[in-house]
Structures are given as C-alpha cells and as structure tokens.
Amino acid sequence: MKFVDEFRDGKLAREIAAQIGAIARPDREYRLMEFCGGHTHAIARYGLTGLLPANIRLIHGPGCPVCVLPIGRIDGAIRLALEHQVILACYGDTLRVPASGGMTLFKARAAGADVRMVYSVADALALARDNPAREVVFFAIGFETTTPPTALALKAAKAEQLGNFSVYCNHVLTPPAMRHLLAGGDVQLDGFIGPSHVSTVIGSAPYEAVARDYAKPVVIAGFEPLDVLQSVAMLIEAINAGRSDVGNQFSRAVSREGNARAQAVVADTLVLRERFDWRGLGAVPASALAISPAYAEYDAERRFGLTDTRVPDHKACECGAILRGQKTPEQCKVFAIACTPDTPLGACMVSSEGACAAHYHYGRFTRNPT
Amino acid sequence: MKKTARRRLDLSGRVDLTHGSGGRAMAELIGQLFAAAFDNPYLAQGNDQAIVPPIGGRLAIATDSHVISPLFFPGSDIGSLAVHGTVNDLAMGGARPLYLSAGFILEEGLLLTDLQRIVESMAAAAREAGVAIVTGDTKVVERGKGDGVFISTTGVGVVPDGVNLSGANARAGDAILVSGTLGEHGMAVMSQRMSLGFASDIRSDSASLHTLADALLTACPSLRLMRDPTRGGLATTLNEIAAQSGVGMLLDETALPVSAPVRAACELLGLDPLYVANEGKLVAICAPGDAEAALAALRAHPLGHNAAIVGQVVEDAQHFVRVATAFGGERLLDWLSGEMLPRIC
C-alpha cells in the first residue's frame, strides 16, 4: 500500500532505533507516555518495545475513548436502547464495554435492544431519515477527532428539521486530561508522545501550556510505527537538553493552529461541561463537551431525561496507577486473571487500545511491558 | 377420467408457509427445484433415507450450518458456500468427500428466484466437488424468524488407509504453510454488509479444497494436519492447533500472503486480516524436511498459486502464537476476544 508502507519500513526502523540507542544516556531511565490508543496499538502491533533500549519505557496513556467512558454513561446508553426503545447507533468497539451488572450493549442487543453499529455519524443520520417513526440516538464518543463530525450532524439535523434524531454526547478533551494526569502528584513521566489525529483538529498550540506548566516535553507523532520511533528520538533529545517544549513530528498533517473550520463548527454546537467522570481517572474538570442550548432539541440527555449516575470503578483495579506510569499491567493483581479482554474490569482492558489489553493481546509472552 | 396436468412451479412468487406444510406446494418445490437440481440416483430413490453402497474404508463425517447475510456476495453465495464448507471439513482430515445431506430453513417471503439461484449454485458446487446431495429437508419459518435461508449440510467421506491427520500432531520444528492469500472471504462479505458503501473488487475465495488437499497428501508423507482457517481466520486456527498439540508457534509476518486490496480494506476499517475468515484456503503443518515439497505441490495447484511457508512450530508451555513483525519487533497473535470490531481511532 503506497503512502503507508513507507512508514513501516523495517530497515529504517533499525536505523532510527540505533540512533535512539546512541543518544539515550545509559545512566538514567526515560519514561515516555503515549497518550493515544492509536499509538498504543502501533507500538503493540509492530513490537516497537523490542527495538528500544531497556531504559526507555513506553507507558500507555488514557487516550482510548472507549476505555475511559465511565460506567454510568454506558448505563445511560443501555437505558436509551432498552427502556426508551430507540435505535441506538454507535461505533463498533463501544458494543462490548462493560456497564453495571455485567451488562454491555452486545447483551442489551440480545435482550431486544435495537443497537446498530455505524462507521460514521452520517450513517446514524441516514438511519433517522429511513426510520421516521423511530427515535434514533447517536451514541457520540471520542476525543477531538470524532467531535467535528458529530457537530456537523447536529447542524444537518437542525437544517433538515430531523425531529427523530438526537445525540448522546460523550466527547472528551485531550489537554485537560493530560493536565489532570500531571497534576495528580507522584507522576513518573518524562515526556509525552502527543496525539496524532486529535492534533490535526486542535493543532499543537494547546499542549504548549501543559508542557510549560509541568516541565514535560511533548512531541506530536503520527500513528505509523516509524512516526512513533522518530518521536521517541525527538523526545530523548528534548529531555537530554532539558527542554520542555512542544515538538511536531507529524508535521505532514498537524499545524500549530489546527483545523479552524472544524474548531468553529464544534464551538457553534457544543459547550464545555463543568466536569466529566473518566473511567480510571475519576472526575476531571472541564474535560468534556455537552450539546449547546441552541441545539437542545437534539440532545438525547434532555430529550429522554437521562440523569448522570456515578458508578465507581472496580476496587481491585489499578488503572489509575497504570495510567500515571506508577505501575505496569503485570503489577495489577487482577491482570490476566479476573481481568481479561473477555471479562474486563477496568478501563485499560476494555478496548484493544487500552494499556492492559494491548499488553494482554500482544505482549504477554514477555514479562516486560509491551 | 381426465388426466391431471402436472403443475409447473411458479417461480415468480415468494416462499410462503404452504411450502413447508407437507402439501402439494411443498412437493412441487422439492420435486421441481431441489430434486431437479441435485439429481442423482440416491436422491431419486425418493425415500426418507438415502441408501448408498459400502464405501470401503474409514468414514469421515462433518457438519456445518450456514447463516450468512447477504445471501449473495462477490465471488460466491450461501449455496456454494454450504457445499464448500462441509467438503473442506472432510478434506482437511484427508477424506475423499462422497455424499452430502442438506437441510434448508426458508423464511416466509424469500424470493423463489433467489432460492432457485442458491439451489443451482449449490448443485454446481456439488458437481464440481464430485459429491452427491443424497438427502435433504425443508422447513419454512414465519417472516422475521429467519434471515432468508439457513442451510445446514452434513458430509460423509472415506479416509484412505495410512492417513492419520489431526490437530494434535504438530511438533516443535515443524513447518507451517498456508495455501494462499488470506482474508478474502470475510472482506468480500463485509464490503457488502454494514452499509460500508466502499467499492472494492475483493471476491470471496470460497472453493472446494479436496483436490488441493489430495495433492498435498501425495507430495508430503510427513503431513501432520490440515485445517481450513474459516471463522476467526488464520490466528484462531493456529491458536486452536497450538492448544490441541501443546506447542507454540512463531510466524514471519513478511511471509504471510495478504493481497493488496484486502490489506487496504483492513487498514481502512481497523481490522487485522489474520482474524478475517477464509473459505478456500488451508493451513498445513509438516516435518521441516518436507516443507519445500509441500510448498511446490500447493503452488502447482490452481488453488495454491500463492502458497507460502509462514512460520514454524516451537516449544512453548503456554501455547502462544507469536509473530516476528516486518518492522523487526515481535508480538503475540492472540485468540480473538468477542466479536471482531473496528477500532475508533
């Protein structure tokens, strides 16, 4: 596949790995967090850890939108589908996220709920047009990447006066989550591999304050394995030089300002929530979006009177410590025993992009973190 | 007395409940559609059972139910798939497939012309595979209680003396081969399903593998086992074999044959082709000394042009299947958890 294979070249990878080996100081450890699940997936899928010196540790962050969705919000989606009998349109990997009482959207389907997997919010709009007698709710999740399409769908619904369409909005924001992680104390991180697709929308500028305030360098990186390796090299250089600025490895797609049109459509339709519960991280202030009052009629929370219930994470779960880099998946008591991809207890095991699931699926043959 | 005219089956309509009621409509459907298409002396006996001659060897029996949506997809349809699936299950044990039974569950409302297409495709696949559909059954369920048509087939074959293939036979050092490019059936079906709307020229690889299996058996005396990596793809099949044989496996990612369109479609959808279904490919494991001969035999067959040696069996108490990635790292190829779902980012 042209334009993709170039970023997966094994020979170049070994050259960059050698370069990283040459610049990494042997007398210290480098603890780098990749924020995004997409990076976690690339690291696991291509076995990148095995190419790096042992004193460079990659710590998987909370950037998997499915993983961090709190139990109460999944409960809400299940209520919409089962009690309010709506057609619930959602992205594929939300189907297996565990909710209260061992329920999932998969199980809700088996119990009679009309849950449809869609590839984009445009498919949800089409469902609403094709089923005028049914309420269609789009279960909107994701970081800044998937937010503009949701915002456009709200605009389209309003323009068409599509009365049977609404959105259950669960969009979350990256920079506040990074800030929250760093503000948590005892964070053993030296730098961030910054989001790829998120940054195409918001640009690199929003990370500047985070990097400065907490003295951690951020390098925005593409999702291909060579992107990740190059960003590791850039981070090692920044750390060695004592710099805490924002670098941009993914300059082929990310600018400092980001996509102004996408930002504008989001600003038109969505507003900041005071706080939002993140699975694994707890309540994070100003970290998620709700539907703006101007689009209230398309807000499923208002339309169906959904109340937010707070459901605590599983007690034995070490996701919080794993997400802060304090523990590895192997150091969690329930990892691969009670908590597996088929029976996930915590955020990190929920989707294949989660830190624990990635280690379970791709790296369990070694005791080292993947 | 006036001679009763034999009514011709009217194919312009749809399956209705009378087609399953045991009356004249059902007799017409069976006689003029199924029996006419599957025509063979055993079915023509017209009894509740088919009585076949002694088959002179160990009997292999396999059964498979087919529930697929859509019923027609690029490269194949549920009819030929129902023949290929069971023929291949027999062939993977080294058996020569002989007879099939076929059970049909029809949903009220199915277009009779669609049913005709399916039955004719099934008959053609059976002829091509040299098997006779010797007995069958038809039921009709109410609209909404089926997915057009479900087809269940059971096959009988004969295993030659001296052939003893089993998923428990793999040993450390053995070579792992696949007979061609992976993931085509699953991606062909998926491109039609789920309102994906992306155009692709990926066709299902659905095919009967018994002649390919036969060529491999002849060329490779140390053949330990064959298996067709259907649901769950190559990854699932290899994990099953690793557990059954009590071994591990190490694959070379650069050797795994995946066509460019399948790679691109999987890339777009966030899927891994190693977990995507095949219906016309086999995995074979043999002693390392026979690997080249096995590969040559596969490649000499029209269904095995893209065959490859993709890895080896290793000792591993935990029965892990690992892949040396093209990028120079290593990863685990785990069992699929739940349904294969696309990733969001």
From TrEMBL, chain A:
Protein name: Hydrogenase maturation factor
GO biological process terms on file: protein maturation
InterPro entries for the chain: Hyd_form_HypD, HypD_1, HypD_2_sf
Family: Belongs to the HypD family.
Lineage of origin: Bacteria, Pseudomonadati, Pseudomonadota, Betaproteobacteria, Neisseriales
Molecular function in Gene Ontology: 4 iron, 4 sulfur cluster binding; carbon monoxide binding; iron ion binding
Keywords carried by this UniProt record: Iron, Metal-binding
Any Pfam family hit: HypD
UniProtKB/TrEMBL annotation, chain B:
GO biological process, alphabetically ordered: protein maturation
Range of residues in the leader sequence: none
Chain coiled-coil ranges: none
Domain PurM-like C-terminal: 171-323
Database matches in InterPro entries: HypE, PurM-like_C_dom, PurM-like_C_sf, PurM-like_N, PurM-like_N_sf
Pfam families (UniProt xref): AIRS, AIRS_C
Classification via CDD domains: HypE
Domain of life: Bacteria
Residue stretches making up the PurM-like N-terminal domain: 46-159
Family indicated by similarity: Belongs to the HypE family.
NCBIfam families referenced in this protein's UniProt entry, alphabetically: hypE
Protein name (record): Hydrogenase expression/formation protein HypE
Organism: Crenobacter caeni
Taxonomic lineage of the native organism: Bacteria, Pseudomonadati, Pseudomonadota, Betaproteobacteria, Neisseriales
